[in-house]
Design goal:
Elements: H1 2-7, H2 24-39, E1 43-46, E2 52-56, E3 66-71, H3 84-99, E4 108-113, H4 126-131, H5 137-142, H6 151-157, E5 173-179, H7 184-188, E6 192-198, E7 200-209, E8 213-214, H8 226-243, E9 249-258, E10 264-265, E11 268-277, H9 280-300, E12 304-313, E13 316-317, H10 320-332, E14 337-342, H11 347-351, E15 357-362, H12 378-396
Parallel strand pairs: 3-4, 3-5, 5-15, 6-14
Antiparallel strand pairs: 1-2, 2-4, 6-13, 6-15, 7-11, 7-12, 8-10, 9-11
Bound molecules: zinc ion.
Length: about 400
Amino acid sequence: MRLQEMATIGATPNGGCNRQALSELDGEARDLFVRWAKEAGCTIAVDQVGNIFARRQGADPGAEPVMTGSHLDTQVTGGKFDGVYGVLAGLEVLETLNDAKVATRRSLEVAVWTNEEGCRFAPAMLGSGVVAGTYDLEFAYSRQDKDGLTFGDELRRIGYLGELAAEPRKCAAIFEAHIEQGPILDREGTTIGVVEGIQGAYWFDVTLTGASAHAGPTPMHMRRDPWRALIGIVEGTFALADAGVPWARATFGDVKAIPGARNTVPEKLVLSIDIRHPDPEELEVMVSDLRRLIAESATVHQIDAQVEQIWHMPPTVFDPFLVSEIAESAASLGLSAREIISGAGHDSLHTAKFAPTAMIFVPCAEGVSHNESEAASPEDLAAGANVLLHAMLAVANDKKEER
Ligand SMILES: [Zn+2]
């Protein structure tokens, strides 16, 4: 199986992959993909950030193509499926059509996006981000890894600095198949996740300042202990997230007490809050409720509260027509399916900015990902590729109403 062959490039002792973006090994994986795509009769184009587009010509070469794809780079201790599955499922679609001698009206393309993982060159999803216009080319080229090597030099070194302009591509549809990277499908025993969008997120750093005091002599009622305020904030925030089932998320990932001594009431607590929701309006409501909660809890306990926004990623809402196309394809194949939201970022987050986009999820064992033990069953992987085939065909031949 191709996934296994690709996984030999950068294979780790514990059964995973270490194939970081623009490394020698990434170059080898790209070469292998290009070889397979050419064997399947595709023409290859490489753009200025190294994104590869393998094209199977349609009957109407002027029509906007239907694209699919994902990424071949991995985390340092990554798995065999994250990204690679979406690329090879795309290749599988083209070969299935070749074998069946099926022509499509629109051309079909399989994309390999550069540097999705972001573990060697930050930020993640850089190749698709440049194409979407989120980042400019010079920014991408100047990114450095921890050894000071630049993205631009490394891209040239592995031979994937292409000439095609890295700009939004006109596509009738872009589909991305991917392992879920979460536990929902696996727990439920559902085969296909019909992905409706990608969660939006806010990151905040919150500093709660009270008064430091001796743990022994200071009576409880004479303290200004920032923990008192934090308890109200944590309880209230979890209540907000619980009220937003199934998709709202709230995480307190880090709390530091300053000065941090066991016999001193801390003067300050510095904590991180991560808030997520797939619905743009609901996300904003959560954030304003959170801000109100922090202010109220601080006031009650005479604590000063500073809230600093560190990062914001707006939710991505996928194209409803393509989402329904995926659901119909799964149903017509008799596969169990459910609507789902992606908790992780994907190249689709950027492609959705310039073309109708949607994703197909398949289960991964225990929801484990970004881990060498990442696993998925051959049956589920095949089912996902089959749904991809049907969804791509429907759009490529404009079976349904004209978009
Ligand atoms: Zn991925």
